[in-house]
Amino acid sequence: IVLTQSPATLSVSPGESATLSCRASHSVTSNLAWYQQKPGQAPRLLIYATSARPAGVAARFGGSGFGTEFTLTITGLQSEDFAVYYCQQYNFWPITFGQGTRLDIK
Amino acid sequence: QVQLVESGGGVVQPGTSLRVSCVASGFTFIDYAMHWVRQTPGKGLEWVAVLSPDGDNADYGDSVKGRFTISRDNSKNTLSLQMNSLRDEDTATYYCARGIAGARAQDYWGRGTLVTVSS
Description:
Helix content of chain B: under 10%
Oligomer: heterodimer
Structural class of chain A: mainly beta
Shape of chain A: globular
Largest interface: A-B, 22 and 23 residues
């Protein structure tokens, strides 16, 4: 399953909202996760099962979608949110990742 | 707290073997599936392998199938990845990650160990 993320880079001002997209080549139902990665750090799970947030993830991170189209929305961007974001499908083996969206400060 | 600490990375020549390991703490290791995920320098993420909690069921990414073997020692809270017939394109940081109960995403990750395959 190929995951295509868009845009490749997104420039947004602090306090605004950001919308990141992930498109799957075949339906992955709701088996999609989002990860955040900062330079020199391991990825961090933000969202799983399309919209579920693990404990400790801020409510400003929200996921939606089903099948082949998914969105990660971050509201009220804070300085620590500027990072690379990856989507991941785990509906089919092998698990696959998107190529990432870099969220930059505008 | 959950901790995953990888070790065993290094510089090796193409065609050789290397074993990387991950020691887990802060949770009941035997209750969770465990994954290896890698990241090439400056590039994206590639899922490598997963192993069931009891160690009986494994699955692999296409690029490593037949060359890499994932294993675990639940008595030592340790996950391992045996990498054979290494290629230049296996150069990456290898992360150990815990599987979420009831889903196949990964909720905790180690800091990674760098494997460099070069002649």
